[in-house]
Amino acid sequence: MTAGLSPADFVKRLDATADDTETLLAALLSDEVLPDEIARPKRVMEAMRYSSLGGGKRLRPFLVVESAAVFGVDRKAALLAGAALECIHCYSLIHDDLPAMDDSDLRRGRPTLHKVYDDATAILAGDGLLTLAFDIVTRDEIHRDPAVRLNLTRALARAAGIGGMVGGQMLDLAGEGRFGDTGPVDVARVQQMKTGALLRFGCISGAILGEASADDHRALDIFGRALGEAFQIADDLLDVEGDAATLGKETGQDAALGKTTFVTQLGVEGARQRVRDLLAQGDKALDRFGGRADVLRAAARFVAERKN
Amino acid sequence: MTAGLSPADFVKRLDATADDTETLLAALLSDEVLPDEIARPKRVMEAMRYSSLGGGKRLRPFLVVESAAVFGVDRKAALLAGAALECIHCYSLIHDDLPAMDDSDLRRGRPTLHKVYDDATAILAGDGLLTLAFDIVTRDEIHRDPAVRLNLTRALARAAGIGGMVGGQMLDLAGEGRFGDTGPVDVARVQQMKTGALLRFGCISGAILGEASADDHRALDIFGRALGEAFQIADDLLDVEGDAATLGKETGQDAALGKTTFVTQLGVEGARQRVRDLLAQGDKALDRFGGRADVLRAAARFVAERKN
What we know:
CATH superfamily of chain A: Farnesyl Diphosphate Synthase
Oligomer: homodimer
Shape of chain A: globular
Number of helices of chain A: 14
Number of domains of chain A: 1
Low-confidence stretches of chain A: none
Strand content of chain A: under 5%
CATH class of chain A: Mainly Alpha
Helix content of chain A: 55-70%
Distance between the termini of chain A: 20 Å
Structural class of chain A: mainly alpha
Order of helices and strands of chain A: HHHHEEHHHHHHHHHH
């Protein structure tokens, strides 16, 4: 580790943000009706809570909080922006797990939402979380300057939308041959969109909230893209080499689907080398921030070397 | 008609805004990749265009444009806000039509999106439209003051979300007995949330964009709620008395589902009387605006007396 941060200290820090995010999400997903709302029906709230609370590393909120910390941004403000991002992430898992999409029965070792409730409730809970994210990200507590909050809101919409995550899920399904032969799969493009866009948003959100210079913003952008690709390669490697019990989901899924992944393209050793290159690339981008970016450097290593 | 506006002139005006909205949506749903986007996959774009272009009265954008006109707001700005609202409306139709939800094969006389494509594409196209709405509503052209755009964004999120439309669809499904016996149906509450919230947003968005006084805002709020309820009662009446060919969808659906509606609660004559009361209530709220609100008054009548 380049950083002056032990792995144990890093995990402590990650856990602390996960705890704070959990508390915040529980409050945001309470039954309390806000101004301009009419009521919060019990069933949709329970479904949203089932899929959003009680688990996950909360990696995306952590990236928001730690990229914001580089610029001395208030932690509470960053946690709120992180909670908005986590709502988007949770909605995407709910919709991706649906029978019409990936048809998954398990998520984080628990039955998926549509198995516990039903498809209609899962669709609506996902829609509800996606919409709530855009309520949260506009809130006054996130930044005193509305122009900054607007920039953040628009960046979130673009990361999550057709030009980002939603488009990436479409490409991923197409790559499985779901819509007939649509030509060779561009693994890097699918990754950039499906998983990369939200991770990158986590990293640049600190620059947006911190009103960073264009160069500083660009450095976090480069770092965020490298971290995102490393995340996906680690995922592909875990599907080949991982342990189902540790992962909380089945392994060998990609091979079973005959899916093109970074591992089928680069081989196991090539994929590992690519991760090392990406970590070096991320470190280099963060050089300008010196010790202020130690936690982000450690986050990239954590993502690349994780076992689940 | 109270208004100094003939029915023919009203329809001309409605059509003009529908045309402008169509043009704007076609541009917003082009393949052009925006900053912070990675790519716009062909299939999801085509699916979104199928469900968003080529039809509809564009009532919601019309309400935005005409409520904005009361305060002299730039028409182009209001059209953009209206397009964001229409994206939300179109996404809601796509998701509501899914087999897991209302399982509808026809919409506006054409096969529904999931019939033409598939459920996965329909879910993603809906997610894409919902997310795009929040990109559009933040755009600089909507208002010079970012604080105003943020207010509009948050109001849209609350109208569309768990405390508005999404929550309303959940209540509506519950009212059909989909989740077992969940007690008596509160028809007014379902209406306020499922269809009312977006229509109300259309009416108050003019006040937000026009930075109206609290009293003016409240007047449009009252008008928007009355118009929303009148819209739903007209819908319930059409399901009983309407003509399938004119409607472009089957009639008698509510009765077939044994659904509680305004008509089953009030009877046909009671429902008609309630519409008259609502129109009077809406007119009264608009009194303060004099002739500037003539088009809105005509819009309420159009909504209440429509044949499809």
